[in-house]
Amino acid sequence: MLSAAGRPTRPISALLGTLALVLAATGCGGAAGSGSAAGKVTSITALDYYTDASEHAQWSERLTACGRTAGVTVEHRSVPGASLVPQVLRQASSRTLPDLLMLDNPDLQRIAQTGALTPLDRYGIDSRGFAPGIVSAGSYQGRLYGLAPTVSTVALFYNKDMLAEAGVAVPRTWDELKTAAAGLTRPGRYGMAVDANATFEGAWQFLPFLWSNGGDERRLDTPQAAQALQLWVDLVKSGSMSKSVLNWTQADVHDQFAAGKAAMMVNGPWRTAALNRTPDLHWGVAPLPVRRPGQTLVTPLGGEVWTVPRNSSEDRRAKAARVLACLNDPTTMLATAKQYFTVPSRSAVASRYARQVPSMAAFVESVERSRTRTGRLGVRWPQAATGIYTAVQAALTGERTPKEALGDAQRTATDS
Amino acid sequence: MKRAPARGLLSTIVGIVLLALMLFPVYWMVNVSLQPAGDALRTGWFPLHPDLSGYVTALRDQGHSLVTSLVVALGSTVVSLGLAAPAAYALARFRLRGGPVVVFGILVTQTVPGIVVADALYGAYTDVGLLNSYLGLVLADSTAGVPFAVLLLRAAMRGIPREIIEAAHVDGAGKLRVLWSVVLPVSRNALVTAGLFTFLFAWSDFLFALTLNTTDAVRPVTVGIYQYIGSHTNRWNAVMATSVLASVPAAALLVAAQRYVSAGATSGAVR
Amino acid sequence: MRSGPRPTPDRPAAPRSDGERTDGDRGAARAHRRERIARWLFLLPATAYLLLFFALPLVKNIVMSFQQYSATTFYTGEAPFTGLRNYAKVLSSDLFWQALLTTVLFTVGSVCGQFVLGLALALFFRRRFPLGDVLRSLLLLPWLLPLVVSGTTWKWMLDTDTGVVNRALRDLHLLSSGVPWLTGTSSALVSVILVNIWVGVPFNTAILYGGLQDIPAHLYEAAKLDGAGPTASFRYVTWPLLRPVAGVVLVLGVVYTVKVLDIILVVTGGGPADATQTLSTLSYELSFQRFEFGRGAATGNVLVVLSLAFALVYLRAGRRALNV
Predict the structure, then answer these.
(1) Judgement on whether residues A267 and A397 belong to the same structural domain of the protein
(2) Average pLDDT, stretch B117-122?
(3) Residues 37-96 of B with CB under 8 A from C
(4) A293 and A404, same structural domain?
(5) Could you tell me if C266 and B246 are in contact, meaning their C-beta atoms sit under 8 angstroms apart?
(6) Is the pTM of this model over 0.90?
(7) Is A5 contained in some domain?
(8) Is A248 within the bounds of a domain?
(9) Which CATH number do you get for residue A227?
(10) Chain C from 39 to 78: CB within 8 A of any B CB
């Protein structure tokens, strides 16, 4: 049955293949023919997830500038964040990977595991001077596959006017957070907002609470993890946080905050430019609260790494590597950081940056202590992340107690 | 007799109220689409100060998707009718030994979940390079149109008086000729209905557009809307403006071709 | 559709063998065969298409469900056969059984709601009144809109904090806080069912209205003469005569609802906490989000079996549907 059934794919493939040829001949197919004569490479392709119009334009500009130093033009394409990894896997299967590829840092190891990436030492690129966190996220089995020009993490954003009006101080502990959020809640406005949706983004926002309380992604069914989840449950139950957090993305959280419908939120510094553009919004940023005073805040390390995928042409890879090196050189890195309010990933550049942009000093400091998501679990991180966001959803909807939800999560995470 | 008109009028009023309730979401979509950007979080009941910025954004971001949808839907209509018309003719008028089996098969296709087809097509399309192509999407989208059109046209063609067809044969016309110059013109109404619905099926398709595209190269408006939601809530006016634009074909066809739409809806319609 | 002329397939036109036997039977047989081939050629393109896009995917899905796919597969092209492992994994997960239950609840809820409301509207529109026909055809709009559009609009309307539904309920003082339409586990399921009912009512109304029109008026007059009130005439005239059409509508409803994906994906994305995850969305998530095509295919096959269980009923009713 199996062998017989396996065969019919060939006629379908043959027929569809013919159609594809016809299509290609008539010029309807989206064949990625990037102009390079046999010898000299004049252009390379780059793929990332910066779909936002202005961000895309800024990155195009940067890639063009770096391409110039390598003597190539860069064809820059962006796909939505959620479809980047599926897209890369598809391209890997059809051997049509771009020459230069951006990945969110926790995705690097699993893509490297498929064999789709090339190690950077081959091109004489090393990680000297880079902060250790991002180097570990960019490495797989001891070899460096990707480098991020800048890194970031999450923090507590608050509306200064609302805090002043309610007479509430910036919370530093979970109890203070609960009290502050309750005191800031009004009809049509919530005290606090987070992204608790069923995606990796939801897991990313929960990590600072989990980690700072001594929780561990390798072992989710612990009292420490349950306490962290209980905090979110309490915030929703008391009405200080909308139940809609279950559906919000980080962008939605930002929009709620910007529209004055949330007094505090968890978000990243890359929102700074947009928040500054919002009229009549006076906002501040602070470290996320911890459960009890004296606990060390541990936040997840964010940042996108650039990689050189495995494709046939040695020359193209070499050019791509030169562009990658340019993106990660101190000057470009500093400019990028200033543009998006992120933190340069070379330690020396970061400290210079902290002096030049004092408002970012706090972020520079917290990024240094940030932990990578793949640091402990490596390629098994996605399963743990799935367990985490599923537990958050189950607990916030009231389907499970935090303890039960995390028990399920542990099972999800260890179930290969 | 004063009672009857009064009762009729009362029914009309009730009917209007019922229709208003049923169409409220459509009204709301239009209302939100006319709000200024960023204000969608506190939408008024009426668009007192209509603002077209949502449409400007929608056309800028999704204009290309609308064109893609149009191309794909037209392509699927052509493919569906092209495949279905001869088949329907054969099933309706030829005594084919396998005919009933084919009809049976077409009915069975209606129970096949789209996700199962998509699962398998993804692999097949990857192998032959039809992912992210117009042709691939047109062919996949026609999975709704072909069975529907065959069944609808077959029913219509069975109703054609035998004499008409026999007369044409006596005049020496071949089968293809008869189909083209006699059967199809006589079945015009059914053809329009079938074409209209296959167009709407493809225009509305979401599943195949979502699964068989991994880039934005061939992105119909349904996927455009899906990518819009969940990205930024303060652009809800643009999301709703895109939705309004995506609803235009359905609304236009309902008004302009009401007769055919009703015929399609009541033909044991496939959806 | 009114019952038109009964089907009258043409008599075979070409091999009029009556007076042409002189060439011998061989020539006639060849002509006959050519004729038969010519006829099949009309059917060939559509049949080939249906085989390629329905039969093969079904077969391929069965094969895939016995293979192990992972992210690596798409690079190496290797998907080793693993026997029943995918099925074991799928069937042993709580989520699968929850999704199965959700699928059943979603289908039953949607189909019942659509039918009852559809019938009520059909009965209402049967009275003749000014603008009746226009109103009735405008009613089709929700059914014609792309599901993504309907889903998006409802998602926005049902938002707990800013949605118009909760606002209307608050303004009418029906409740003080908001109903968590999309954020509570059971209310989210109710919400997607309501949205799906909204989408399906026009279709039900249209077909049932057609069925009502086919009931001869004199039967009602006779019932009236016998002193039957509206209830009695519905019970003894309308319902018995409408039953065949009702059967078609219900079975079609089940067959189409069981595989619904768009609405759920757009309105709730299967959440919160997987409360609106059906077999369709689960299969989508496994295949296209987690790249576990083997398990996605296995889940899809369960859905196929479920659909086919209804198919027998459907085919009986479907034959009637074609001739209505």
Answers:
(1) yes
(2) 91
(3) 41-43, 82-84, 86-87, 89-96
(4) yes
(5) no
(6) no
(7) no
(8) yes
(9) 3.40.190.10
(10) 39-40, 42-43, 45-47, 49-50, 53-58, 60-61, 64, 74
pLDDT category of residue B172 using cuts at 50, 70 and 90 = confident
**Non-local CB neighbours of B211 within 8 Å, separated by 6+ positions:** B118, B121, B122, C284, C288
Show the domain range for A249.
Answer: 155-299+377-415
Q: Is residue A66 part of a domain?
A: yes
Write down the pLDDT at residue C324.
39
Domains (range + CATH), chain B: 57-264 (1.10.3720.10)
Based on the fold, state whether residues A165 and A184 are members of the same structural domain. yes
Total domains present in chain A: 2
Neighbouring chains of B at 3+ CB pairs under 8 Å are A, C
Residue A2, domain member (yes or no): no
- The reply to whether residue A261 touches residue C183, judged by beta carbons under 8 angstroms, is no
Contact B41 A252 (CB under 8 A): no
pLDDT in tens, B187-217: 999 999 999 999 999 999 999 998 888 777 7
Mean pLDDT, 10 residues at a time, chain A of 416 residues: 33 45 40 47 91 82 95 88 77 81 94 92 94 93 95 94 96 97 94 93 95 95 97 96 90 88 93 87 93 93 95 90 96 94 94 89 84 91 92 94 94 77
Whether a cis peptide bond, with omega within 30° of 0, leads into C272 is: yes
How many angstroms away from the CA of B27 is the closest CA of chain A? 24
Which residues sit opposite C316 in a β-bridge? none
What residue type is B248 in one-letter code? V
Q: Which residues in chain C have their CB less than 8 angstroms from residue A311's CB? A: none
A179 and A280 part of one domain: yes
